[in-house]
Amino acid sequence: MAPKTGEMLHLRGNALNAGEPVTLPLTQSSMYHLPGVTDGLPTYGRVDNPTWEHLEHVLAHLEGAPCLTFPSGMGAISAALFATLKAGSHLLIPSDGYYVTRVLADQFLSGLGVTVTERPTATFTEGGFDGFDVVFVESPSNPGLDMLDLPTIATAVRVAGGITIADNTTLTPLGQRPLDMGIDVVVASDTKAMGGHSDLLMGHVASRNAQIMERVVEWRRVSGAIPGPHEAWLLHRGLETLDVRFDRMCSSAQVLAERLAVHSSVRQIRYPGLPSDPSHALATAQTSRFGFLLSITLETEAKAEAFINACPMLRPATSFGGVHSSAERRARWGDDVDPAFIRLSVGCEPVEELWQAIEISLNAL
Ligand SMILES: *Cc1c(COP(=O)(O)O)cnc(C)c1O
Predict the structure, then answer these.
(1) How far is the CA of 72 from the centre of ligand 1 (A)?
(2) Model confidence, pTM
(3) 264 pLDDT band (50/70/90 cuts)?
(4) Which single residue of 46, 135, 171, 195 could bond 238 by disulfide (Cβ 3.0 to 4.6 Å)?
(5) Cα dist. 14→2, 36, 38, 52, 124 in Å?
């Protein structure tokens, strides 16, 4: 069910006592006043923090599931994987998803006795899911924007005795709800659209499976991978405007995609909201918005660089989901894409102002 973002804005207010601040206090403390019996009290800053707790209450409202925060998206992904894998486990991951997840699997998990298999998102279901303990998916994939049939995969993996983890960073819980489609665990980088202002790194894990969440809680407490209270406070503030930002970003992305699709400098475009896009049918079935990420391939690498660096309304930067539109050539990080392939993250600029800047820069190539 779609989250009620109005109710989210009043979660704190409706639980207040007279005289308390309406906005969330930022608690910077490693110690709590604990004379004698400590039952039910916060104990220590690695275990308890009221600023995280309220943030997690708000995130749980958005996800429709218990939620735990981490100091980055990779912190959340590591927690989900360490909580569910052990020596001898088989892990399936996409070969074209967020590349650091593959690095984690190849450089660390495989050294601990986990067998790692990679498959491209476009042919992910080929070969079935027998024998996999954990199947990690990313839909749409970053940066290719290929999509997976999540309900079918969730069922097939469950029948085969495994669990599914979905990285939902690119669409946020407002755009896609993997848990409602049967996925066991959602992980996300809140560094992107959830925070939305490019001024923090954070991540979260959400699941309706109590045993998995218990392991994730224990992993955070023991590994010490805790978010800073100030980052938690900033993310909470960012979430208050997620609905308006996401709405503007997705609407603008649709407008830009339709115009870019017919621009003579654009050799190829991917945006799930275009009826001609290979992901359109799955996106229509599974998502409530088509997202704010699109990709264009220009004629040459040189032209792609010239466009990104000259356009006054595109920050040439890695990462995405911020209020400022940004773009980069993903081949520079080794993603298996054309050298002239640009991932474009549409921000909150008024769409006509943004289009004018993009069109002038494309026409000048
Ligand atoms: C950015 C990103 C991550 C990692 O998040 P960090 O906050 O940078 O650690 C994971 N998955 C996807 C899809 C991402 O875009």
Answers:
(1) 8
(2) 0.97
(3) very high
(4) 195
(5) 21, 32, 28, 18, 45
The domain locations on the chain are 5-16+24-239, 243-363
Pocket around ligand 1 at a 6 A CB cut-off: 72-74, 98, 138, 142, 167, 169-170, 189, 191-192, 201, 203
Could you say which of 3.40.1190.20, 3.40.1010.20, 3.90.1150.10, 2.40.160.20 is the CATH number of the domain covering 243-363?
Answer: 3.90.1150.10
For ligand 1, atom 11, the nearest C-alpha belongs to: 98
- Measured in Å, residue 187 CA sits from the centre of ligand 1 at 9
5-16+24-239 and 243-363, same CATH topology: no
DSSP β-bridge partners for residue 345: 293, 326
Helices (H), the chain: 5-9, 50-63, 73-84, 99-104, 150-159, 172-175, 210-223, 229-239, 242-260, 280-286, 301-310, 351-363
The two three-digit tokens of residue 46, written as one number = 């690695």
User: Is the backbone peptide bond immediately before 50 cis, with ω within 30 degrees of 0?
Assistant: no
| Parallel, antiparallel or unpaired: strands 90-94 and 268-270 | unpaired
Question: Per-residue pLDDT tens for 269-319?
Answer: 999 999 999 999 999 999 999 999 999 999 999 999 999 999 999 999 999
* Residue 203 contacts residue 78 (beta carbons within 8 Å): no
Residue 181 CA to residue 148 CA, distance in Å, equals: 12
Query: Which of ligand 1's atoms lies nearest the C-alpha of 191?
Result: 7
